[in-house]
Specification:
3 domains; globular; 15 helices; D-Maltodextrin-Binding Protein, domain 2; 5-stranded mixed beta sheet; 6-stranded mixed beta sheet; alpha/beta
Length: 336
């Protein structure tokens, strides 16, 4: 039986990887590219969903447990942009990483990344949701909830300020961009009174809480985190739109890691059950997965490119050939 298209059931889309000038922090030492013959140390990339000050206490116990289990020193790699982790893995400076779906498919494309595990949330789900959020005190919020947040944003974009997260964020850019804008043939770069990229889920939430923007993207997991890190800010935020479910996050390593190291990593991730360490990360477990788990995100990456081309008034011969190629690749992913 052919698999039903994810775009037909719960579509997402992709956006092109932007360049980065990411600033990584890994102690006070430099990092060396991985050597396939002998691994003396691993660097673990962590995408910037919130500030490093908030991320470090969550991740350090997990990194320490990983290091102890596999018998290889592991250091955390924090970057100011999602693309920083992708680029670090691309150049062998990071050998294993926690990605979102969108950042992973970019890493698989250009950074020799291979997903081998998937996170399971605290409630046992292998998925999460993107949101549009607004401040409860903002006059637009009641109307947006009544009309539907996505519809309200489209109809009133010229009067609104709007914040995305990061161009490589799945829920902070990719999902809402497809559902709210691309399917309605709206270019967010052209319609808003002001449009910004805040850099993280935490930043978009605070921008809304502080009335710096009218509407922003976020997700249920990051808002749950905000309840703990800044409960007063969370109380000011109202969800005005929710996406279909998104595949939960991948853990990926470089394909060129030695087989015995990959096996050690798999054994740790598939069997680690320490609730005291997992719960702060909002996980209940990590389970086996493979690259195809995130094919739904790839479908949306292709769908985005198709929509972009179709929106052009005059297609060149080159555009038409590219459109045929994109549709062919999309059909292949969808099993048609």
């Amino acid at each position: 039986m052919k698999r039903r298209s994810f775009i037909e059931s719960s579509a997402l889309f992709g956006a092109s990887l932007l360049g980065t000038q990411a600033i990584a922090t890994i102690g006070n030492r430099g990092i060396e590219p991985v050597q396939a013959q002998q691994i003396k140390e691993l660097n673990f990339g962590i995408i910037s969903t919130e500030s490093q000050a908030n991320q470090r206490p969550l991740w350090e116990p997990f990194i320490a447990a990983l290091s102890s289990s596999i018998g290889i020193p592991v250091r955390a790699f924090y970057a100011t942009q999602y693309a920083g982790v992708i680029e670090a893995m691309r150049f062998g400076q990071v050998q294993i990483a926690w990605y979102g779906g969108k950042s992973y498919i970019e890493a698989a494309k250009i950074a020799n990344a291979e997903a081998f595990a998937q996170t399971v949330s605290s409630d046992g789900k292998k998925g999460y949701y993107a949101h549009l959020i607004a401040n409860k005190s903002n006059p637009i919020t009641a109307a947006a909830k009544k009309q539907g947040g996505d519809k309200y944003v489209i109809r009133n974009a010229s009067k609104l300020t709007f914040a995305f997260n990061d161009p490589n964020s799945t829920s902070g850019f990719l999902v809402p961009s497809y559902y709210v804008f691309d399917r309605n043939k709206v270019d967010p770069k052209k319609v808003f009174k002001r449009l910004i990229f805040s850099g993280s889920h935490e930043a978009t939430a605070l921008a809304v809480a502080n009335n710096q923007v009218d509407v922003a993207t976020n997700n249920n997991e990051s808002l749950e985190r905000l309840e703990k890190t800044n409960p007063s800010a969370r109380q000011k935020i109202e969800i005005i739109w929710t996406s279909p479910i998104i595949p939960s996050d991948p853990i990926a390593y470089r394909k060129d890691l030695p087989a015995d190291v990959k096996k050690k990593l798999q054994n740790f991730f598939y069997n680690f059950k320490d609730k005291k360490i997992l719960e702060p990360l909002q996980w209940s477990a990590l389970v086996p997965a493979n690259d195809k788990t995130w094919n739904p995100i790839r479908e949306l990456d292709l769908a985005k490119q198709v929509l972009d081309l179709q929106s052009k008034t005059d297609l060149t011969a080159e555009d038409k050939q590219k459109l045929n190629d994109l549709n062919s690749r999309l059909r292949k992913l969808q099993g048609r």
